[in-house]
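# step 3/5: fold
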Amino acid sequence: MAYSKLEMPRPLETLLSLPRVRLANRVPILETETLVRRLVDRTEYQPKLIKNAFEISRGSVHQFSMDDEGLSTLLEEINSLEYVVTKRSKKAMEEMLNGIYGDGFVFKEFESEIEPLCRISQPLRDVSKLADGLADKTKEESIDVARALMIDLPKRQPESAVS
């Protein structure tokens, strides 16, 4: 199909607000996880830990919601064939998808650490489960976008998930 200069498909990266901010850079998830691990059994610290874990979970909901919206739009655009995937956009997409995928694992590890606090606080449990569901959804959408662009995602990203 021939395009005039005005009708040329734009590179895929023009859809995105890159670079994407990683979860650990948006909310202090790793610091809070460390505090929870150290102090979870000390009842005098539990109210503060619950408050901090709630804020981290709420921030994670926000992050994963934005990722979900962006990935859904991206899948629609990829399927519309109105955008072209350049080498540059493929590299940018690979970085973004690996970040989203890795952030899902970061949240899963955080969630396992705050489980004792979730048993104490129903609001924390609720927001944590919401973030967990969105993390799962964005990981799956990352895989879908990666497949559409023929990008391989790693199976697991433990230490590199926050770099």
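# step 4/5: annotate
The two ends are 41 Å apart (CA to CA).
# step 5/5: archive (pending)
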